[in-house]
Amino acid sequence: MRAFQWPWEARAHKGNQIQAASPSFYGMWDAVARFAAEIRASEFMTEMIRRRDAYGSEGVMGALDCATLYGLARWLRPAEVVESGGFIGMSSAIILKALADEKLATARLYSIEWSEECEHGALIPDDLRSQFVPLRGKVEDFVRSDRLPSSIDMFLHDSSHSYRHMLWEFRQFWRRLRDGGLLVSHDVQMNAAFPEFVTKTYAHDKKTGRRDAQRTSHHEWGRWGYIGFAIKKG
Ligand SMILES: C[S@@+](CC[C@H](N)C(=O)[O-])C[C@H]1O[C@@H](n2cnc3c(N)ncnc32)[C@H](O)[C@@H]1O
C-alpha cells in the first residue's frame, strides 16, 4: 500500500480543476506551467525579487527558475524536501511558499549550506520559517549522518556545480527518493551531469526504438530554463 498520493489523485480528491485524475505524467507540464505563471505574476514574487536585489543577487536563483521550482513543488505536494546550497534562501523561500499554498503544514524543507559567511535563509519571509530546517555543513557530511530523512519526496541540487559533485549528489539523493519523487537540479546547463544521469536511468527497446518502460527507472523528465527534473520510478 502506498503511503503517498500521486499529485493528480490528491487534486481529484480536493476537486481541483487544474489536474483532474490523469493517468499520465504528461499533464504535469500544463500544471507546472500554470503554477509557474501564477507565482511569476504574484506580489510574493515581486517582494522576493525586491529582497534578493536589496541583498545582492549574485549566486541566487533567477525569477524564471524560481517560478519553475515553485510549479514543480506545487504539482508534487511533497512532505520531505532536501536542498543543497541553501545560501541566503531564494530557492528555500520559493519551496516553502509552494508548501504553504498547498496547505502542507507538516511538510519540511531541509536546507544544507556549508558557508559560515552567508546568512543562511536570510531572504525567507518570517511567516514561512516554521517549516524550514537549516543544516550548516557540507552535503558530503550530512549524507553520512542521520540528520536527513532516509526517504524523501523531492531533492533540489543547488550547491557546487562541478560535473563530479552534481553527479555525486544526483546518485546520493536518487536512492533516497521514493517512487514518484522528484530530482530537481539548478544550473543543468553548466555541464553534462544532468543529461548523463538521466541517460543512465533510461532504457530503450531495440526493436521499437522507443522507451522500454519496464527497464526505465524514471517517469517524466525535462528541462525548463536552467532547471532540470526527473521523476523517479521505483
Ligand atoms: C548557487 S548558491 C545557492 C543559491 C540558493 N539556492 C538560492 O537560490 O538562494 C550555492 C551555495 O552552495 C554552497 N555549497 C557549495 N558546495 C557545498 C557543499 N559541498 N555543501 C554545502 N553547501 C555547498 C555554497 O556555499 C553556496 O552558498
Mean pLDDT: 92
- Gyration radius from CA atoms, angstroms: 17 Å
Give start-end ranges of low-pLDDT stretches.
Answer: 15-23
> What is the CATH superfamily label?
Vaccinia Virus protein VP39
Assembly level: single chain
Helix content percent band: 25-40%
Q: Could you name the CATH class?
A: Alpha Beta
H/E topology pattern: HHHHEHEEHEHEHEE
Number of discrete helical segments: 8
Domain module count:
1
The CATH architecture comes to 3-Layer(aba) Sandwich
What CATH calls the topology is Rossmann fold
The largest beta-sheet arranges its strands as 3-2-1-4-5-7-6
Q: How many DSSP E strands? A: 7
Q: What is the beta-strand fraction?
A: 15-25%
For the terminal residues, how far apart are their CA atoms?
14 Å
Characterize the largest beta sheet: strand count, sense, and whether it forms a barrel.
7 strands, mixed
Query: Hetero groups bound?
Result: S-adenosylmethionine
Tertiary shape: globular
List the helices and strands and how they pair.
Elements: H1 7-14, H2 28-40, H3 43-55, H4 63-76, E1 80-84, H5 90-101, E2 108-113, E3 132-136, H6 139-142, E4 152-157, H7 163-176, E5 177-185, H8 193-200, E6 218-224, E7 227-232
Bound molecules: S-adenosylmethionine (SAM).
S-adenosylmethionine binds next to helix 5, strand 2 and helix 6.
Defining key terms:
234 residues, alpha/beta, Rossmann fold, 7 strands, binds S-adenosylmethionine
Could you provide a short overview of the structure?
This protein has helices at 7-14, 28-40, 43-55, 63-76, 90-101, 139-142, 163-176, 193-200, and strands spanning 80-84, 108-113, 132-136, 152-157, 177-185, 218-224, 227-232. With 234 residues, the protein is an alpha/beta fold. The protein has a 7-stranded mixed β-sheet, sandwiched between helices.
